[in-house]
Amino acid sequence: MAAAAFFDLDRTLLRRSSALALAGSFRERGLISRRTLAKAAAWQLLFVARGASHEAVRRGAEEGVRVLEGFTPAEMRILVADAMDRVLRPLVYAEPLELAERHRRRGERVYIVSATLQEIVQAIADDLGFDGALGTVCEVRDGRYTGRTERALHAEAKAESVRELATAEGLDLAACTAYSDSHTDLPFLEAVGRPVAVNPDRTLRAIAAERGWPVLEFRARAYPRARRLPPALLGLPVLAGAAVVVHGARRRGR
Questions:
Q1: In this structure, are residues 178 and 195 in contact, taking their beta carbons and an 8 Å threshold?
Q2: C-alpha dihedral over 177, 181, 186, 192, to 10 degrees?
Q3: Domain for residue 120, yes or no?
Q4: DSSP collapsed to 3 states, 157-188
Q5: C-alpha 180 chain-centroid distance
Q6: How many domains does the chain have?
Q7: Between residues 66 and 161, which one has the greater pLDDT?
Q8: Contact at 8 Å (CB) between 181 and 199?
């Protein structure tokens, strides 16, 4: 059977949340208000300082898609494509791309697995040359997001999605590798035979030490010359998609 490598996205492949980095784009399209951005800033500071519980991640995934009601998947793909060069690429770590290439040289496929919206994760995977992506799926009716999730990829659901992919693709999970930064991804890491902690939070670092898992520290930028955000927008990456995890977000057109 074949093997593969699974990379978490936020703070593993990217230096911060992919959704957070898209705040400016969400704001431009009326998906979130300035007030929501302010609330998101406070939430994000707490998240960075203390981490997030399983319940916080679950609630964020469910509430996050509500702001997408009325938006279309095509519009989301355009939004992400427009932001790829100026917003997302500057956040990519060099080390995971090097690891992905090593896995490919061994004949292994590479995937991104994240609680971020599927369309965002897929666009990043395509841009970086990964073989596929698994993300949170938002319900679509009549070509538009309903604001409800069909599959929220966090905790055990993230691990289950990997097991389903392994069954479909004939992968030997015991020979597969998974990379993540968060203790909330413990089921995801336990789903494979070769778990690796990357820039781990305090809880995951302790678990990795107890279980003898490798711990890696990613620091280098993959695209050091990527175009940076102008000074007026430098604060937005800290605020961005966290805005979709707090109440009070505007629905499109309001």
A1: yes
A2: 0
A3: yes
A4: HHHHHHHHHHHHHCECHHHCEEEECCHHHHHH
A5: 10
A6: 1
A7: 161
A8: yes
**pTM of the full predicted structure?**
0.82
Q: Residues 182-189: what's their mean pLDDT? A: 95
Q: Which of 19, 47, 50, 14 is nearest to 218 (CA)?
A: 14
Q: Assess if residue 253 is contained within a domain.
A: no
Which amino acid is present at 95? E
What values do phi and psi take at 120, rounded to 5?
-70, -45
| Percent of the chain at pLDDT exceeding 90 | 61
Q: Domain range spanning residue 62?
A: 4-245
Place of tokens 């939004």: 79
250 in any annotated domain: no
Angle at 166 between CA 164 and CA 171, to 5 degrees: 170
- Cα separation, 138 vs 145, in Å, equals 6
- CA 241 to CA 25: how far, in whole Å? 10
User: For residue 50, is it within any domain?
Assistant: yes
Phi first, then psi, for residue 4 (nearest 5°) are: -150, 170
Residue 56 has a pLDDT of: 57
**Total residue length of the chain:** 254
Per the model's pLDDT, the better-predicted residue between 26 and 248 turns out to be: 26
CATH classification of the domain holding 113: 3.40.50.1000
DSSP calls for 71-113 = --HHHHHHHHHHHIIIIIGGGBBHHHHHHHHHHHHTT-EEEEE
Kindly list the distances between the CA atom of residue 86 and the CA atoms of 23, 92, 195, 224, 233, in Å, as whole numbers in the listed order. Answer: 13, 12, 32, 12, 11
Catalytic residue IDs: 8, 10
